[in-house]
């Protein structure tokens, strides 16, 4: 008998709440012996930039390929009310459903009794830490969990007759709203307002707020009592560790999968339809407070430590090693790179018919068929003699689904801007979720460029066959070639030269046997990029990288060659620059970076370390040696910076 296949509809799995629930779902599916297909989109009707582009992946959910579906309703439906949620679902799924967090009329519902745990936490702050003047930072107003937590908080304040002293602020469950709320709290305190404690409706806002205090107002860290809700992955890692409320994610995930298995067995496997959902149930789970250092308590259990292998692992950089405008070459590079990560399986599929423009209306948008063009299966690259065509909603061809052990698969869209061309699938039984998202992002960017080249080649063939349109097509081709030529030497994020462009220009200027040309090579590296990406998101990290690039452009002359050769690594060839010019250029860079920080919208100041080496021209080997010397100086400066901040001195 084939295994049951359960779908899991969730938003970004590296989020604080979503990560814990996702990991619990994967573990419980393995225990139950069922396949788990997770569809990672974003929040429905999210106001955030391009979130709805990711939600095309929810159109993959289909009753012909799944036996049941679990929906992380509390997070996926954060921005719409219950009426809109039910209407949205009515238009889509004919599957046995389980909803986690929101009560849905067509599903078994798993609801969280937040009152007991949250009440105990707030009463602990009042009775044990003598807090009387509270600020409460809520979540999205139409979200049911946000409403429940606000109501419980208000009841506790009223019961202790301190509700008149409470300040209410609105958040949206995101890290940015936590930073904005804490900045407002700091301003109130500076104006003489008494505040004892700040309670956030989730951990993501609370963790970002603590990080903001550590950077901007360290004098308030021990003055304010701070609490959150969820006990997310980083709650015990931040300093001070976060007092919060824990949800029983393993029990919730186990109940969700168990309910579907029971109902499917009652109604008959593979019998889809709205009348085949079995008996619907409602389950309630309690919560418990977790007291840590952010409220002044010593943790009851040892605090979780970061998984150090994540930070001290392979130096293989996927974004540098997958740079090609040829699809076959791209996949060869990907096959070489994946063994450096703990990825069990990775598959890339392209839509039949090519890319298409995704609008935000309608739900029958994905092509019926797709082509499997890359397969890294069970730790081995499986070269494909030709692309395998299969039903898109099946996720993979049947041969790759027929394995002995239950499969936990994660499906992510491949797109560039609003142009969609395929999807990528990971086996998540091993590996780091951040690595998988980095791989998805890089594959999408590189594949987009590769497809542009394929489209260019197709245009050339059409020109040869359609002589009547030769002039018009040649004009279009010249424009495409100009764009592609510029992209081949330009970094998309910053507009600087990329690795190829930088070294080509430096060789033209300084690598010669006849005329020696003096220059100075500068090597710069942004500080704390990984922490920013992990805590505030890759969009904030990208913006920080752009600030460093702008500061370099303000510092150096137009004739100087500036390049970005890695994620946060920059190099500069300052022409006709000697030893007497270096100190002033370094000072000018620091001033330019400070100016950029003043004009930026980031909640922290971007900083960078720099090394340099004078190069009087010469051979290719001498150029490489000069760059190595600049890199060594950068490494020493980076190590000194980390010592000043009390960070471990990890390799670049």
UniProtKB/TrEMBL annotation:
Pfam families linked: GGDEF (PF00990), Peripla_BP_3 (PF13377)
NCBIfam families for the chain: GGDEF
GO molecular-function term, one example from the UniProt record: transcription cis-regulatory region binding
InterPro entries: GGDEF_dom, LacI/GalR-like_sensor, Nucleotide_cyclase, Peripla_BP_I, Rev_trsase/Diguanyl_cyclase
Protein name (Swiss-Prot/TrEMBL): Diguanylate cyclase
Keywords: Coiled coil, DNA-binding, Transcription, Transcription regulation
Lineage: Bacteria, Pseudomonadati, Pseudomonadota, Gammaproteobacteria, Alteromonadales
Coiled coil segments of this chain: 456-483
Domain GGDEF span(s) in chain numbering: 517-651
